[in-house]
Automatic annotation (TrEMBL):
Pfam families: DUF3310. This is DUF3310 domain-containing protein.
Length: 78
């Protein structure tokens, strides 16, 4: 059970820096407003974990997808 909890609470692939991904996300995404925050937060999550989870290309592709989605939402707003 402890191993499963570790995968949920502070998994290692989010703790490779002097900060956790969630700390960056919590600090950055409010500046984008509610419409873009979800996509920006997910893009940041995938970028920050990409080199550590063993799925670098896939994580960067996911980040790119979320950034493209944010751009589409931004374009719809105008």
């Amino acid at each position: 059970m402890a191993e499963n909890k570790n995968l949920v609470n502070h998994p290692d692939h989010y703790k490779k820096f002097s900060f956790e991904a969630i700390e960056v996300i919590d600090e950055v995404v409010p500046a984008f407003g509610p419409k873009l925050s979800f996509s920006i937060g997910n893009a940041l999550k995938y970028i920050l974990r990409a080199p550590f989870k063993g799925t670098t290309r896939q994580d960067l592709e996911k980040a790119a997808w979320y950034l493209e989605h944010a751009i589409e939402l931004l374009d719809m707003k105008q």
